[in-house]
Structure formats: C-alpha cells, structure tokens
Amino acid sequence: MGMNRDVFKNIILASRSLDKCHAIKESMLKKGLGEIGVEQVDADDTQALVALIQKHKPKVVVNVALPYQDLTIMQACLETKTHYIDTANYEHPDLAKFEYKEQWAFDKAYKEVGILGVLGAGFDPGVTNAYVAHAQRHHFDTIHTLDILDCNAGDHKRPFATNFNPEINLREVSSKGRYYENGKWIETKPLEIKQVWAYPQIGEMDSYLLYHEELESLVKNIKGLRRA
C-alpha cells in the first residue's frame, strides 16, 4: 500500500502498540514513501474500532492484525458501512482451529448495507485462490485434483523460520493435517504426510501436508473437485 500512493493516498496505521506505528511511519518517510497517520486502538474492542473508523472515514479497512481479531473488526466495518479486507481466517484464541463459518455469516448483513468483505487476500490464501479461479474460468471445464505447493526458500541459519505470526505458525504445524477426497474431509496426524518436491528455481525440498483455509472455499466453489 505504501508503494502505491497513487491508489492509497491517505493511510492510517492503527495498532495497540503506538511505538511500532511510529517506527513504521519513520521508515516509510526515510524510503520516500510519503506521510501516514498513526492511531492507537485495541482491535478486540469493537466500539473503539467503530469510533476510530468514524473519526477518519476510510473507504476500506485492511485488517493485518492477528486472526483472533477478525470478527470484531468485521463487526466494526458493518456498523460503519466500511469495506473490509483481511489476510487470514478467523481463529479462536483458545482453540487451535479455524473455519470460515463465522466470517461467512456476515455475508447477508454486508450485502444489505452495501459493503464488500474480501477474506484471505494474502498469498495463500489469496493469490492461490485467484490462480485456481483463473484456471477454472479460462482453461478447464472441470478440475478434478488440486495440489497447492508452497515453499519459502529463505534461510537465516536458524532452526525455525516464520513468515507469519510465530504463534499462528506454531499452531499451524502442530495441528492435524486435513485434505478433501471423494466428498469427504480426511484428517491426518500433524506433519504425517511428507513429499519431496522439486520446486522451480529452488530445487528439491521436504514438503508436508498442512491444512490451510483456502481449501474450504476452493472445495465449495471449484466445480468437479475429487481431491484437494
């Protein structure tokens, strides 16, 4: 967003930790990416979010908080009739499990007030969904099997590398695997299924079956899927 200021002319960065917002603001100024505003807010407090949205009246709220805050932010957007985007599926703080049911429940109310909610607009979910939708629309009549292979080739010589929030990543790799086959969801033990895959430009890497939220929406919307 900061690199596309012709589109995002006014940006307000809000967080519980105001010092982090100021650090990002200074970093953007040093990089010549322009001025942004900063605010402090508790994303678990719907009414505090409503007040902040009403103060600045943004066209869209982009939620890059933890998945635990998805529902409170979505509710604040509903009450203020503000478009909503996030990058990760809602998770309950005390239960390492995620599904779209509670977010999809906003669909009717969002339509009634004329706002759009875009869920999972990251890379996976996000870009992966767009790739599959493009393939279905432009290249195939039906898609029978779907495999999403994702590899981070970065290496900082440490035993564990996280490319998202560490707590969420640890929940992900320690949870049961899950895949779809012949109309049923099948669970596996954590990291039970391993495959060595040759990735373009990276080479062979150990890859493990994990459940990820985009499968829930892809299974619902992609015609003819037998396994995913």
UniProtKB/TrEMBL annotation:
SUPFAM superfamilies: NAD(P)-binding Rossmann-fold domains. InterPro entries: NAD(P)-bd_dom_sf, Sacchrp_dh-like_C, Sacchrp_dh_NADP-bd. It comes from the Bacteria. This is Saccharopine dehydrogenase family protein. The lineage of its organism: Bacteria, Pseudomonadati, Campylobacterota, Epsilonproteobacteria, Campylobacterales. Residues 4-116 form the Saccharopine dehydrogenase NADP binding domain. Residues 122-222 form the Saccharopine dehydrogenase-like C-terminal domain. Pfam families: Sacchrp_dh_C (PF16653), Sacchrp_dh_NADP (PF03435).
